[in-house]
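From the pipeline queue, job 12 of 40. The input is one protein chain; the requested action is below.

Action: predict structure.
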Amino acid sequence: MRWLRPSRSRAAIRRRGWSGTGRRWPSRADAYHALGDEPRPAPVALSPYGKELQALALTIPPQKRPSPLWDGCIEAGDIARVVAEGYVHVIGDVRGSGASEGEHIGNCNAGGVPLGQDAYDFIEWVAAQPWCNGTVGMIGISYFGSMQIFAAAERPPSLKAIFVSGGHFDF
């Protein structure tokens, strides 16, 4: 567990690295939440890009937009904002990417298993954690948006909402 003080937020954010074992694969994720241990709803973001990349927004000062450097946008959603709104922001590596085990094969399956099935397992794992109140949503653009469609098609019981803002949908 590590405490971060993001430059755009007055609250400290607790970052916890988690390892879950679904029915099909061991996953790796970081869960970001505010001080306190009460269970909260959890927006989930899944991709093959590496969960650590998304956390850069917590340590890089905000840039004037448009910036020639980086404007602070991250595809998994603004961690500081999500946490400030009272959620646990969970960013996970899909099978075969980042710190997760297995094999990632293309955009639609991982090691012969459709990504939606992996997302189902991940969502249900998040819902069962002590820091989650059992309500899970999904957030993110581009690949993260596509993962929301894959997940929703599997109908995990704990998935209550998705917020797809862009993605590739011609599967």
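Job complete. Residues 1-11 have pLDDT under 50 and may be disordered.
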